[in-house]
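User: Continuing from earlier, I have the next pair ready.

Assistant: Great, send them over.

User: Here they are, in order.

Assistant: Folding the first of the pair now:
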Amino acid sequence: MTTGARVRVMLADDHSLVRAGVRRILDAEPGIVVVGEVADGVAALGALESQPTDVLVLDLSMPGMDGFELIQRAHAAYPELKLIVLSMHATPEYISRAVECGADGYLFKDSAVADLVAAIHAVRENRVYYGAEVQKALAELVRGREATPRPTDVLSARELEVLRLVALGLSTKEIASRLDISSRTVETHRANLMRKLGMHSVALLTQLAMKEGLIGPGT
């Protein structure tokens, strides 16, 4: 982006009222222009292909492709794109997962008015931006990890992703398609994570995934 040009922002949230509220905030800023709005992750990836974007502001809970997967895919396809999560999810596990996937910023929706504009400019300058409450949650998570190792610490990044998708109810074929790997590779990852965790049922894996913040209740 050239000096003086406006920051191009895209909004991804399945609630139209939320998008409208966020857009009102950003439309009032002369240095920012909203270049698009979408309601889910798949639509976001499609829009990014045709619309040059500097910052993607997204929710984590969206139909079809959730925010975690969108962050990973968008980050891989557009390394220069900055990603800010704007979510109601306040658990440390959700925040940590988003950051690990590649989020440059994380805000709670009720702090959008106070923090979103500052967050957009911060990430555009290659800085991270976490709201005050988010920082507090991350600090609590770090202290908790230092005190008690998490069961999933033994899993690789790919095994964690397979665990999340298994817990979401996807079949081996669906997981293979989603991750662009073979069904046999999925089965290998699944067997390895079950062995490492000592769990051999989808029900137990789902409970663990919820406890660790990999999926949310009712996802």
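And the other member of the pair:
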Amino acid sequence: MTYEEHRHEPGDEHWWNESWYFDFATEDFGGYVRVGLVPNQDACWYLLCLVTPTSVVRIDDKTAPLPTDDALTIHGITHVGTDGTWRIAGTAAAEELTAQDIVDGRPGTPTTIELDLTWTTDGRGPFEYEVTTRYEVPCLVNGTVNGRTVTDAAGQRDHSWGVRDWKSSRWCWSSARLADGTRLHVTDVVFPQFRFTTGYVDDVTVTAVERTEEIDDLPRKGRLVVSPTGTTVDVTPIAHGPTLITDGGDTWPFHRTMARFSTDAGDGLGWIEWNEAPITSA
């Protein structure tokens, strides 16, 4: 597949969405950004989340104005990409709190985010999903965040467009870079009528996964057994960056967690997420 980094013409569905996702992970610091355009609701879901084992600094705005420029400027942050490279840079007001505060709905303390980070393709190019318009790209991430230097951090980005109703399915998504350079990505989506699983272990396409997870207020651990490679991955959280989603009178935590991924071939770092929404018909 070739890159399609540009915006796409929206359909007329209420939940038509176009999103760009970016994350990075180190031993004790990481983050993610989601630019989610929902044009038929005249809104942008914007998430910029920086995490350590003890704190979260974030912008969480699900009613941000749609960006009007090619730089996708939101909250003073620009998101500029070409085939193979994306740069996110700017300074913005944010809040600092804990992951438990987020789950409990408590407000944070005002602070500031200043960042200049670049995602550069590492390994394979875009991995295209078969049943929906979306692709994933493994990356290395470099730059600075609030004066802290990030050097060759494990990262991932994706681009997706189409109808995305967060209450129509539950899913687990993950990506990691192991110590030997192996890139791992697994997505497992469960709809009321069917299940869809995809991803990759380097150049091998994932066809199925057996997964278990322990989630209380926050994720505690997880395991993925990936086919056809037979790779077993134990997932140990390092830091959490959840957000609360409200739709149709229901509110639930969407868990996104920076984690250590342990396999027989060695450990690695990355992110894993769980959408445990109350499923409705699509």
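Worth noting for the second one:
The radius of gyration is 17 Å. Residues 16-275 form one domain.
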